[in-house]
Write a structure and sequence with these properties.
heterodimer, A: about 300 residues, alpha/beta, Rossmann fold, 2 domains, six-stranded mixed β-sheet, four-stranded antiparallel β-sheet, 11 helices, about 45% helix, globular, B: about 500 residues, mainly alpha, D-Maltodextrin-Binding Protein, domain 2, 3 domains, four-stranded mixed β-sheet, 4 strands, about 75% helix, rod-shaped
């Protein structure tokens, strides 16, 4: 097992003048589940997109087993699997067709692919829906399909962006079990989440992203010990100290404005017109807000 | 991995298109319907059903004949009492052309005055209309001219004949006058009268003064006066006759010259005078149907719009799918995605064109399968070029609206600067030199060469090379478009 499957060295990522990540160093150990936690808009997804080379770092370098990802991405990308928050598959293809298609794109041989597709459908528990069009699947099934598409080529590293977002507790449990199962086969997993209890439950290694930087990294117990608390929730309480609260809120306000402006200019054509999408968006926004509100309220109460 | 990925993407694309059954049917059948409708609609020659506004000052046989002739040639005649109403009817599109007969030929006047009013904004139609109506009127005018000219020829012929007979009369008259002169001269010599006078003088001299002598003297005086008068008059007559003779002597020569000149004119028919130049406009093809002329242009336009719209939409749909992100991170070359999109489009377009060709061959009864290899090759190259152009547009724009808009605008621009709407000869020379390399123009020329004139590969080599170069340029543009915009979700 390599302690440095992925290594960030002084990585900065900015979008025009808006700095999202500022000279971060991060290590993702092989065979473990690493969780990147932080508030919404902190840049968690940006870290994952940097690993997958969708974004290029403004400064710094990212390594996969000592190889510069950006320089050798055509050879390295086959070792990565990635499932993003919104899912990345074809709605008009069936579960089986999606998995098979992406297997082909990852270069899996036809014979092996046929067997592996069935295996993975079984692994993610979509046997009864394998011929169903993806657009007809439930949210939980879509999440599982997305993960299935990400592991069809047996990646070394599985990157999961908010894998349990928008899921009810039962579905969340199913996905967590699936992640653990995949990891048990030796696949390294790096995921982002806003749910601290979830991170604590499944992650072997945790990186806390705050104010454009990784402020802490390591085993959850180790981090808790460092802050002299017993849960990650309490760690966050410490981080969101009264002293920092004002500056944090201000920096968040600025970031939100920049993001809002950017989103407005880019996604004018992607207005939410569907009621289910709207509900989903509201739920997502309220969850993020609840998390921050809870933290701020607790701090104000002096806990 | 490349070919497997490519085939998988093509299969996936075709499956997705096939699952939207209505879209698939529309994609395949719309061009066939267009070609069939166009084929049926333009299954005619020339123009027909043209409404001709007419204002006539005074009805004559001539203008009635003209109007009857126009009606026989499928023109619809609409009479207007006022000249202004006739002109306004063109402006209001109630008629396509207004013809005003102001001063038609009649018994006292032969001046024609026919005025046309056409809507020049419909440039191509205006020219054809004037051409057709003018032709009809020219035909009628020419008939009148032929009749008038025939009369002139007849008069000239009879004059020529009359001149010959007059020449003979003049010759005999010259002889008569000469004989007359001799007689006059003989008379003017007065020998008998002189003898009589001399006898009377002798008689008078022998007579004594008497009343009788006086009478004889008076007679002598009178006779002398007569003698003098005769002499003078006969001299005058001779002089006048000689003058006449002088004139008449020259007249036969002049008549000869006239007769020779008339003979030289040698007009066999009045048509020869009215239309000394026989104009014959021959068609380069045996086809005379508008549909046949239009077929290369329609095929070219279907290739343009089909290629550009289909590929740009396909690219954008792919970019807008949730799967785009995963496609990005799979170890698949950019060129594989470009090539697979191209292959998908090409498969759909080939199926489209097979259906179109079947429709043309069996429903429109135009033998297109005979020229399938040539037409297939040029369409393949053109469709490839247009597909890559559409892909470039698809990569360049982010929303479906702008992509479709840009595709339509670019296709329309290519169509506008071709021979489809107006001949490219009607645009300025600067633009024309660019428009000559417009792929739509090049394709149109090649298709006309093949379909209308039956040329083979060697004759369309230039067009193949130009379209091939365009194809390569658009491949590079599509590749750059994807490279530049691949991170822009």
């Amino acid at each position: 097992m390599n302690d440095k499957l992925i290594e960030f060295k002084g990585v900065t990522k900015s979008f025009k003048k808006n700095v999202v990540l500022n000279s971060i160093d991060l290590t993702i150990p092989e065979g473990k589940i690493t969780g990147i936690i932080g508030a919404s808009g902190e840049g968690k997804s940006t870290i994952l997109k940097l690993i997958s080379s969708f974004y290029k770092p403004t400064k710094g370098k990212i390594y996969y087993l000592g190889r510069n990802i950006l320089k050798d991405i055509s050879n390295i990308s086959k070792f990565f699997g990635l499932a993003i928050e919104d899912g990345s598959f074809y709605e008009k293809l069936s579960v089986k067709e999606n998995i098979f298609h992406f297997g082909k794109l990852y270069g899996v041989k036809r014979k092996i692919l046929k067997i592996r597709t069935e295996e993975i459908i079984g692994l993610v528990g979509l046997e009864n829906a394998k011929n169903t069009l993806s657009e007809e699947l439930s949210i939980g099934m879509k999440k599982r399909l997305d993960i299935a598409c990400s592991i069809i080529h047996k990646p070394t590293l599985l990157i999961l962006d908010e894998p349990t977002a928008d899921l009810d507790p039962l579905l969340r449990k199913q996905i967590i079990n699936l992640i653990k199962k995949i990891n048990s086969y030796g696949t390294t997993i790096v995921l982002t989440t806003q749910l601290l209890d979830e991170a604590e439950e499944i992650c072997d290694n945790i990186a806390i992203l705050y104010n454009e930087k990784i402020i802490d990294e390591g085993n959850s117990k180790k981090i808790e010990k460092k802050y002299g608390v017993s849960t990650l929730d309490q760690v966050f309480d410490k981080i969101f100290s009264k002293k920092d609260r004002k500056s944090y809120q201000e920096s968040k306000k600025i970031k939100s404005k920049v993001k809002l402006k950017k989103k407005k200019s880019i996604k004018k054509s992607n207005l939410i017109t569907d009621s289910s999408e709207l509900r989903k968006a509201i739920e997502k926004a309220s969850k993020s807000k609840n998390f921050l509100d809870k933290k701020l309220e607790e701090m104000e109460n002096g806990n | 991995m490349g070919i497997n990925s490519l085939l998988s993407i093509v299969k996936k694309d075709l499956k997705i298109i096939g699952r939207s059954k209505f879209s698939a049917i529309m994609i395949l059948l719309t061009p066939v319907l267009i070609i069939l409708l166009a084929g049926m609609a333009f299954n005619s020659s020339g123009v027909s059903g043209i409404v001709l506004g007419v204002h006539i000052n005074s009805e004559t046989n001539l203008n009635q004949n003209l109007l009857n002739s126009l009606e026989e040639n499928n023109f619809v005649i609409k009479d207007f009492e006022l000249e202004k109403d006739c002109i306004d009817s063109v402006k209001l599109s109630q008629t396509q052309i207004c013809v005003i007969f102001l001063n038609l030929p009649n018994e006292t006047s032969t001046i024609e005055n026919i005025q046309f009013y056409v809507d020049n904004s419909r440039i191509n139609l205006a020219h054809s209309l004037v051409y057709y109506v003018e032709n009809e009127i020219d035909l009628e005018a020419s008939n009148i001219s032929i009749s008038h000219t025939q009369n002139l020829i007849d008069v000239l012929e009879s004059t020529k004949n009359s001149l010959s007979s007059q020449k003979e009369i003049i010759s005999s008259s010259i002889g008569n006058i000469e004989e007359l002169n001799l007689n006059i001269k003989e008379i003017s010599s007065n020998s008998n009268l002189t003898t009589v006078i001399q006898d009377l003088v002798s008689a008078s001299n022998s007579m004594n003064e008497s009343e009788s002598k006086d009478k004889v003297d008076e007679a002598i005086i009178l006779l002398n006066q007569i003698k003098t008068f005769n002499l003078k008059n006969s001299n005058d007559l001779v002089t006048q006759n000689e003058e006449i003779l002088f004139i008449l002597d020259n007249t036969p020569n002049k008549l000869d010259t006239l007769i020779t000149s008339l003979e030289k004119t040698n007009f066999r028919s009045s048509e020869e005078i009215v239309s000394p130049v026989n104009i014959q406009i021959n068609s380069l093809t045996s086809n005379s149907n508008n549909r046949d002329y239009l077929l290369p242009t329609i095929l070219g336009l279907l290739a343009l719009f089909g290629g550009v719209l289909l590929s740009s939409t396909l690219v954008l749909k792919e970019r807008k799918t949730k799967a785009f992100f995963r496609n990005f991170i799979t170890p698949t070359w950019d060129f594989t995605f470009i090539l697979s999109c191209y292959v998908t489009c090409l498969i759909i377009l080939i199926v489209q064109f097979i259906l179109i060709f079947v429709g043309i061959e069996y429903l429109l009864k135009i033998p297109i399968f005979d020229i399938l290899p040539e037409i297939g090759l040029i369409l393949f190259i053109a469709l490839s070029g247009f597909t890559f152009l559409g892909m470039f547009i698809g990569y360049l724009f982010k929303s479906e609206e702008t992509t479709v808009f840009a595709s339509v605008i670019i296709s329309a621009a290519l169509m506008f600067f071709s021979n489809t709407i107006l001949p490219i000869e009607s645009i300025s020379s600067g633009f024309k030199s660019i428009a000559n390399f417009n792929p739509v123009v090049v394709l149109d020329i090649a298709l006309k060469k093949i379909i209308l004139f039956g040329f083979s590969y060697s004759s369309i080599l230039n067009e193949i090379i130009i379209l091939g170069i365009f194809c390569l340029i658009f491949i590079v543009l599509a590749y750059l478009g994807r490279k530049i915009t691949r991170r822009m979700l």
